[in-house]
Design goal:
It comes from Kineobactrum sediminis. By secondary structure, the chain is an alpha+beta fold. Helices cover 31% and strands 23% of the residues. The protein is globular and about 65 Å long. It folds into three domains: 59 residues, no CATH class; 184 residues, D-amino Acid Aminotransferase, Chain A, domain 1 (2-Layer Sandwich); 89 residues.
């Protein structure tokens, strides 16, 4: 822990003790055990209210930390093949090869290479970007780093007349875009097809931003694909992305019954403290969330299971799947998909699997 963060950590700890009326010594012992033995991060402990004495040890034993879950996730996904999902250009090419519906990549900016993966137009300099934005008929489009994550660097660009605007309504020029893609963090960016929410999901949330499902699959030791769980990420307020980020965004995670695609639980972060809070209605639209059935659910299941076989030898993936009016579309895959810390049974199941399949 960084020295400057120690006072903040102390304040958060004391605040939790006061709110939960917890004995500080007992709470500190639990905190140390959760961090040292169970590998929970402080943020996980606070988010899941694990210092609340009303949450007994039997409940905590059914939980698993993200750090512990990493072991089977990485063990079942060979390092030499992880770029198949981490690299969005490679991921797109594999989806196309296996007939998995996924957004089209209209152009690739790569300042280090003029190669054209899958025949996609390649942009290398300001003049190429100027020409592309002037001539393309694709609008709106998504601009994002080819190896990005958590929505970082993603923008939605839309052309009105001869002028381009970003997702916040600001005017965008080729020079501004060229400056952005000079980021030292990545040399490759993609201009990608925009995907719109299914009308029922758009009505449920009232949000323009794409709201995806996180479908977690594993290929078992018999070579058969299985669904481990499913979530729908719902946008709250003026957010553009559906990322949850441990409750930092204020967005929601809707837990689904994988047998029928209905929402059975919805969690978000409380307004004043970044900790788990269950809700039943959307805070913006006031619509009932519990019981909502995901459109095209059987097609979603079929797509996730087909994708899990198509990306072998990677075996344990969290798929981000968008639901459109025409059906599900595969957005990306995640090797270290997030968890809700109530998944020790999944952890133990994955730990029991062989790496020889």
């Amino acid at each position: 822990m960084h020295v400057t963060s120690i006072p903040i950590a102390g304040i958060k700890f004391l605040s939790a003790c006061v709110r939960f009326r917890a004995n500080p010594i007992t709470a500190l012992k639990r905190f140390i055990k959760l961090c040292r033995d169970d590998l929970f991060s402080p943020d996980e402990i606070y988010f899941h209210r694990l210092l609340d004495p009303r949450i007994d040890n039997a409940v905590i034993r059914r939980m698993i930390s993200k750090e512990k879950m990493l072991e089977p996730q990485l063990r079942l996904n060979p390092a030499g093949f992880r770029h198949h999902v981490d690299d969005k250009i490679t991921f797109n090419g594999l989806c196309v090869r296996h007939g998995l519906p996924t957004p089209d990549i209209h152009a690739i900016f790569n300042r280090n290479s003029a190669s054209k993966p899958n025949g996609t137009p390649s942009l290398r300099n300001l003049e190429d970007i100027e020409r592309y934005l002037r001539d393309t008929s694709n609008t709106p489009i998504i601009l994002k780093p080819a190896d990005g994550h958590d929505g970082v660097g993603v923008d939605r660009l839309e052309k009105r007349g001869e002028t381009w605007f970003d997702m916040h309504g600001g005017r965008v020029t080729p020079s501004l875009i060229f400056s952005r893609v000079q980021s030292p963090d990545t040399s490759r960016w993609i201009f990608q097809q925009v995907v719109d929410n299914h009308p029922e999901i758009a009505e449920l949330s009232g949000a323009l931003g794409l709201q995806t499902m996180r479908i977690r699959t594993v290929v078992n030791d018999n070579g058969q694909p299985e669904l481990l769980g499913a979530l729908l990420r719902l946008i709250s307020g003026d957010n553009v992305y559906d990322n949850f980020r441990g409750g930092a965004t204020g967005n929601m995670l809707a837990v689904l019954d994988v047998s029928d695609g209905r929402i059975v639980e919805v969690i978000t972060s409380s307004k004043h403290h970044r900790e788990i809070n269950s809700i039943t209605h959307h805070p913006g639209t006031k619509k009932q969330l519990i019981g909502f059935k995901i459109p095209h659910w059987e097609d979603v299941r079929t797509l996730a299971l087909k994708a899990s076989l198509s990306f072998r030898p990677l075996r344990c993936i969290g798929w981000d799947i968008a639901i459109t009016a025409a059906g599900p579309m595969l957005i990306e895959g995640n090797l270290t998909w997030g968890i809700l810390n109530r998944e020790r049974d999944i952890y133990e199941y994955l730990q029991s699997m062989s790496t020889d399949t």
